[in-house]
Amino acid sequence: MLSLIIQLVSGAVGGNVVGALLKNLSLGTVGNTIAGILGGGIGGQLLGMLGVGGAAAAGGMDLAGIVSSIAGGGVGGGVLMAIIGLLKKVFAK
């Protein structure tokens, strides 16, 4: 459960960081946060299913598990935010 919370929080941070870096794809602070939370949860779970999540996939919360949860959540949040931002931009035309 703690691993999922870490993934969701790091996903929100990842979504906002990517939104700040790619201003043309930004969904605004609230949109970036929501997309990041969703992406963080999905990205972290996918890494766990693929076995890349290490200790987090097994339920352990050692340093490696925490780092993999942060990385998976952050990357997943950033990627999903960028995809949604790109889709929004394409369909707005």
Largest sheet: none
Average per-residue pLDDT, rounded, comes to 87
Helix count from the secondary structure assignment = 4
Strand segment tally: 0
End-to-end CA span = 41 Å
Number of domains: 1
% residues in beta strands: under 5%
Structural class: mainly alpha
Q: What is the N-to-C succession of helices and strands?
A: HHHH
Fraction of residues in helix:
over 70%
Low confidence ranges: none
What does the radius of gyration come to?
13 Å
Dominant shape = elongated
Explain the overall architecture.
With 93 residues, this protein is mainly alpha-helical. It has one domain (2-88). 83% of the residues lie in helices and 0% in strands. The chain has helices at 2-21, 28-50, 55-58, 63-92. The longest helix is centred in the last third of the chain and has 30 residues, at 63-92.
Give a concise summary:
With 93 residues, the chain is mainly alpha-helical. It has one domain.
Write the layout of secondary structure elements.
Layout: H1 2-21, H2 28-50, H3 55-58, H4 63-92
Helix pairs in contact: 1-2, 1-4, 2-4
Q: Which terms would index this structure?
A:
single chain, 93 residues, mainly alpha
